[in-house]
Amino acid sequence: MKKNEHVNGICCGYTKDGHGVVKIDGFPLFVKGMLEHEEGELVITMVKKSYGYARLLNLHKTSAERVKPVCPLAKQCGGCQLQHMSYKEQLRYKKQKVQDVIDRIAKLDLKVEDVLGMEHQLYYRNKGQIPVGLKNNIVQTGFYRINSNEIIDMNTCLIQSERINTVLAVMKELLVSYENASVFRHLLIKDGFHTGEVMVVWITRKKNFPHKEDMVKELVDRLPFVKSIVLNLNTREDNVILGNEEELLYGQSFITDTIHGLKFHISSKSFYQVNPVQTEVLYGKALEFCEIKGNETILDMYCGVGTISMFLAQKAKKVIGIEIVEQAIKNAKENALNNGISNIEFVCSDAASYAKKLSEENMKPDIIVVDPPRKGCDQITLDSIVKMSPQRIVYVSCDPATLARDLRVLEDSGYHCIKVQPVDMFPFSHHVECVTLIVKK
Fold first, then answer.
1. 136-190, pLDDT tens digit by residue?
2. Edge-to-edge strand order for the sheet containing 433-440?
3. Which residues are catalytic?
4. Which end of the chain, N or C, is less packed with Cβ atoms under 10 Å?
5. Is the pTM value of this prediction over 0.85?
6. What is the Cα–Cα distance from 399 to 375, expressed in whole angstroms?
7. CA angle, corner 289, sides to 283 and 291, nearest 5?
8. What span, in angstroms and rounded, lies between the C-alpha atoms of 48 and 314?
9. C-alpha–C-alpha distance, residues 132 and 122, integer Å
10. DSSP result, 255-320
11. Which segments in the chain show pLDDT lower than 50?
C-alpha cells in the first residue's frame, strides 16, 4: 500500500468512529462515509504499519441504507458523523460497536440487547457549546471542521434544540453589531427542555469589554425565555472550554428543568444529560435493573445534579450521591429539597477517594450505581466497589470500550454481567450510551 495509490474494494464493517473498513489483501483501510457492503474506488491518503486511511472517490455499488444527509454541512462539520446512514443502520452499527468490545475487551459470552432508539432524531440536544471566531473580520459561529481548529460557520444546527438555534442567531447579530466577537471564545447555551428556560454562558477572554450591559439588555428584551446570563472568564491557552471565574450578568445562576415529574436546577458547570427524551429511557432502564424493593441503601457515584439519585430515592430506603463538582452538589442538594426528597445525602468528593473511604469504613450498600466520565472507573474505584460487596451494580456508560474494560475487572472480582442495554442518546453521531446490569456471583 502506498499513499495516493488507487484501489477498488468492498466495505466489510465499521470502525468505532463509524468509518467504513475496506480490506485490500487483508490490509485494512478506514474510509470515511462508506457503508457496509458498498463497493467503490478509493485513493489511499495515509499508510501506517498495520492499517491505513483512504478517501472514497466513486461508488460502484451503493447500500440501500445510504441516505442523503439532512444537514448541508454534514461533510465539513465534525459534530455528526453518521448522516449518510439510515437510522436503522445507525442503530445496527451502534449495537455491533458495543458487541465488538464486549467480545474483544470484556471477553464475555453475552449477547448485547438491541439499541433503544428515538422516534424523532432532530433538535434533541438541550446543550450547545459553540466556538466563536473571526475570519477576515467576519464573525464565525459554528463547530470545528473534523481534526482542525477551523470553525465551520453556521446559523442552525439540526440536532440542537430550536431555542438554542434562536439564541445563537441573536447572539451572532449582537457580536456583529457591537463588534466584540474577538473577546468571545465560546457560547454555552443550556435549554430547559420542558420548562422553556434558557441559560446563556459567555465564555470570554476578558471580564470587562465595551457594550457588555447593552448586549445583556438586548438579548433579554428580544428573547424573554432567557432566564440566566453568566460570564465565564477563560484566559487559558489550551482547549479547556470553561474557566474558573464566573460573574452572573442577569437572572439566576441556574435554570430549571423537569424529568419525569422531578425538578432540577442546572448551572453552567453542572452535568446534565443532553438528550432529555432519551434520558427518561436511560434512567428508566437503570431503575429497572436496580430492582428496588424498598429497604435498600444505594450508592450513586458520579451523581451530577442528582438526577439518577432522585429517581432511586423515590423507591429506596436511602441514597448517597457522590460528585466532585462543587456547583453540581449544590444544585443536587437544592434539587432534593425542591422535590421534597429527604432520604438522600450528597457528598462533594472525588468518587475514587470517597468510595475507598466508605469501603474502609466497612460500608455495605445493597446497590451501587456508577455513571462515570468517558474514561470509565479507575482501579481504586473498582477495588472499593468490590470491597463494599453490593449485591447489584448498575453501570451507566458513555464509552463502550472503557465499560468493557471495567466489566472484565469486575468479572474477575466475583461479579457477573447479566445484560448490556445500549440507548441511543446521540443520533447521527458515533456515540452510544449503555446501561449494564452486574450481579454478585
1. 999 999 988 877 888 999 889 999 999 999 999 999 999 999 999 999 999 999 9
2. 344-348, 318-323, 297-301, 367-370, 392-397, 433-440, 415-423
3. 398
4. C
5. yes
6. 8
7. 110
8. 53
9. 23
10. EEEEETTEEEEE-SSS---S-HHHHHHHHHHHHHHHT--SS-EEEEES-TTTHHHHHHHTTSSEEE
11. none
